[in-house]
Write a structure and sequence with these properties.
The protein is α+β, with helices and mostly antiparallel strands. The protein has 8 helices and 4 strands, in the order H-H-H-H-H-H-E-H-E-E-E-H. Helix 1 crosses helix 6 and helix 2 packs antiparallel against helix 6.
């Protein structure tokens, strides 16, 4: 099974148990799984230990329980982590966290959007673009911002598969094509 497919299946199962349409429950659980991914899922030594077939199951379980207690995980998150340890899938934690975050956003009616600006935008510009995208999509928007000086000016926004291009580079290319035809 591909790691991404396994992560998606684990995230789907976890979301169903937590209440797939309960945005608050998914928010809390997503934060816990992200914490696990940042700790256990990022430490190479822990990953080797948990995924090793030669390590004793009792040692792995004791380590998982200890880690869950120190992290202050809920019962559901701790049990889920134990399932990952038993199935030697701790390496999939990052993918599971990402897939669960997507489900959390879907339950909260939040769509991811990416905006690329020619120069670093100010907070007012980001907020104005976010509000415009929310108005156009009818959903809340989680905006991530990048800077690409090749745009020359303006911005390009991507929401799902839809692209809104208001860059100076594209306008100049369009003008160039019209002049070439004339």
């Amino acid at each position: 099974m591909k790691p991404d497919a396994a992560a998606g299946r684990y995230a789907r199962a976890l979301a169903e148990i937590a209440g797939e349409n309960d945005a608050q429950a998914l928010e809390a659980l997503s934060a816990e799984i992200a914490l696990l991914a940042a700790t256990a899922g990022s430490d190479a030594a822990l990953l080797r230990f948990f995924d090793s077939p030669s390590a004793h199951a009792a040692d792995k379980t004791a380590a998982a329980v200890s880690l869950a207690k120190k992290a202050g995980l809920s019962d559901l998150a701790a049990r889920f982590f134990n399932v990952l340890v038993e199935n030697r899938r701790v390496g999939a934690l990052r993918g599971i966290a990402a897939a669960l975050a997507e489900r959390r956003d879907r339950a909260a009616n939040i769509v991811p959007a990416e905006a690329t600006f020619a120069t670093e935008p100010g907070p007012a510009e980001e907020k104005a673009l976010q509000q415009a995208l929310e108005k156009m999509t009818g959903s809340h928007v989680r905006l991530s911002v990048k800077v690409d000086p090749d745009l020359l000016g303006g911005a390009v926004a991507r929401v799902g598969s839809r692209i809104y291009d208001g860059s100076l580079r594209t306008r100049l290319q369009s003008l160039h094509r019209r002049l070439a035809r004339a």
